[in-house]
Write a structure and sequence with these properties.
The complex is a heterodimer. Chain A contains 5 helices and 5 strands, in the order E-E-H-E-E-E-H-H-H-H. Chain A is an alpha+beta fold. Chain A has 2 domains: 3-78, Ubiquitin-like (UB roll); 88-155, DNA polymerase, domain 1. In chain A, helix 2 crosses helix 5 (142-155). Chain B has 2 domains: 2-168, Uridine Diphospho-n-acetylenolpyruvylglucosamine Reductase, domain 3, CATH 3.30.465.10; 174-282, CO dehydrogenase flavoprotein, C-terminal domain (Enolase-like, domain 1). The longest helix of chain B is centred in the last third of the chain and has 22 residues, at 261-282. The A-B interface holds A 1, 4, 20-22, 24, 43-45, 48, 51, 54, 57-60, 62-65, 67-68, 70, 111, 114-115, 129-134 and B 1-3, 5, 26, 29-30, 33-34, 36-37, 43, 46, 48, 50, 72, 74, 97-101, 103-104, 186-187. The structure holds FE2/S2 (inorganic) cluster (2 copies).
């Protein structure tokens, strides 16, 4: 099977890669580009562990072909922190102990970031609906929701 | 597998028409990529249509809305004019999957995947939506109702692509609604879905109605007797009773783990009553 040459932008950098036609974006990120943050929980769009932002929309990278990345703008968990400075969501996840094994965490963080980008002041209900496509087997979700609420508060500058 | 990303609809139809076998259109991929993971499924050719001009646009003209085949359902909910015109269609489209799925899934894909439980399809049928279909011989229009022919099967011919859904602007004093039953609060497959569109006369009584039932037959069902039962009424209980009974009678569901035949038939009527109320309110009825 011949390879497809793809040019794309990932976390602000121009990236070029070769992939097979049937390779998913998740496979490309993990196996070809060494970006191991996005996880494969299911491979069928059910768990959200592979969440990635493509052209401003959070999607399951396991349901995107690598070839579809051509000309697009992709954000992954690797681009979330500013150097060694954690994104407020990342800091609040640690503070609230919103992770245990951590497998679901990159997906939750990316999905939560996409939410706060469009809705800086979500209600608890909005957070729970928005994150319903992210599954966690460890935390019971409550701490995740609290962490997102707290991060939103901090990002709005309403509390340091 | 071969991946192609044509830039014109003509190229896309030729690719599909000339393919030997197992050729698929890729729009949002939320059904196709899941199938690609399953054993025994083989795709020899995938034609990604999203680079074709217009596929990613919702175009509002004087009389219509045209929803391109590549428009993610999330974008429908962000289109205020479309939400105001066809709230039931948008609600149905926005019920599909999670946030992540909403970012990719399309109404055209929902239609062409031809699942009997597709959420957006009953709403589109109630709204009288049409499909704009490109093929080797040019473009044709078909009623959305006539696209699915059975589970996973459509009336599209080889090489044909649904390039857009066309919705007329709603008539004065009209309103639509879609409700579905699932055993949890979200992210599940409809056990029953009901789309309704009502047009009222100047006196506020129902002048015409369209009721479409999902997940209670191999394809979406246009329940004409049920719709007729509402004509002339202001949704009085007697009219609603006749309408609900006609919905149950029009339903021919299967028994499966998500619902029994009996349950689905009854729920079709219950949901239709509730959806009719919402549509009536939206049409300005009281
Ligand atoms: S790995 Fe993509 S949704 Fe589970
Ligand atoms: S922390 Fe283990 S799955 Fe969420």
């Amino acid at each position: 099977m011949s390879s497809i040459a793809v040019s794309t932008t990932i976390n602000g950098d121009d990236v070029e890669f070769l992939c097979r036609a049937d390779e998913t974006l998740l496979d490309v990120l993990r196996n070809r580009l060494g970006l191991l943050g996005a996880k494969e929980g299911c491979g069928t769009g059910d768990c959200g562990a592979c969440s990635t932002i493509v052209d401003g929309r959070v999607v399951c990278s396991c349901l995107v072909l690598g070839a579809e990345a051509e000309g697009r703008t992709i954000e992954t968990i690797e681009g979330m922190a500013n150097g060694s400075e954690l994104h407020p969501l990342q800091a609040k996840f640690i503070e609230h102990a919103a992770l245990q094994c951590g497998i679901c965490t990159p997906g939750f963080l990316i999905a939560a970031k996409a939410l706060l980008d469009v809705n800086p002041e979500p209600t608890e209900e909005e957070i729970r609906y928005w994150l319903a496509g992210n599954l966690c087997r460890c935390t019971g979700y409550d701490k995740i929701v609290r962490a997102v609420q707290d991060a939103a508060l901090e990002m709005r500058g309403e509390r340091a | 597998m071969r991946y192609e990303r044509p830039e014109t609809i003509v190229q896309a139809t030729h690719l599909l028409a000339e393919a030997d076998s197992n050729a698929f259109v890729l729009a949002g991929g939320t059904d196709l990529l899941v199938k690609m993971q399953s054993d025994g499924f083989e795709a020899d050719l995938v034609v990604d249509i999203k680079s074709i001009a217009g596929m990613g646009d919702v175009v509002e003209a004087d009389d219509t809305f045209v929803i391109g085949a590549g428009v993610p359902c999330a974008a429908l909910g962000e289109n205020d004019a479309l939400v105001a015109a066809w709230p039931g269609v948008v609600e149905a489209a926005n019920l599909i999957g999670s946030t992540q799925i909403q970012g990719r899934c399309t109404v055209v894909g929902n239609l062409c995947n031809a699942s009997p439980a597709a959420d957006s399809v009953p709403a589109l049928v109630a709204a009288g939506a049409k499909a704009k279909i490109a093929g080797l011989g040019g473009t044709r229009m078909a009623d959305v109702l006539d696209i699915p022919t059975g589970p996973g099967k459509t009336s599209l011919k080889k090489g044909e692509i649904v390039e857009a859904i066309v919705l007329d602007k709603p008539l004065a004093r009209s309103g639509d609604a879609y409700l579905r039953f699932i055993p949890r609060t979200e992210m599940d497959i409809a056990v029953v879905g009901v789309g309704i569109n009502l047009v009222l006369d100047e006196g506020g009584a129902v002048q015409s109605a369209r009721i479409a039932l999902g997940a209670v037959g191999p394809t979406v069902i246009l329940a004409e007797d049920a719709a007729q039962a509402l004509v002339g009424s202001k949704l009085e209980e007697t009219a609603l009773d006749v309408m609900a009974a006609a919905c149950s009678a029009a339903s021919h569901p299967i028994d499966d783990k998500r619902g029994t035949v009996e349950f689905r038939k009854q729920i079709a009527g219950v949901l239709a009553r509730r959806a009719a109320r919402i549509a009536f309110d939206r049409a300005g009825g009281n």
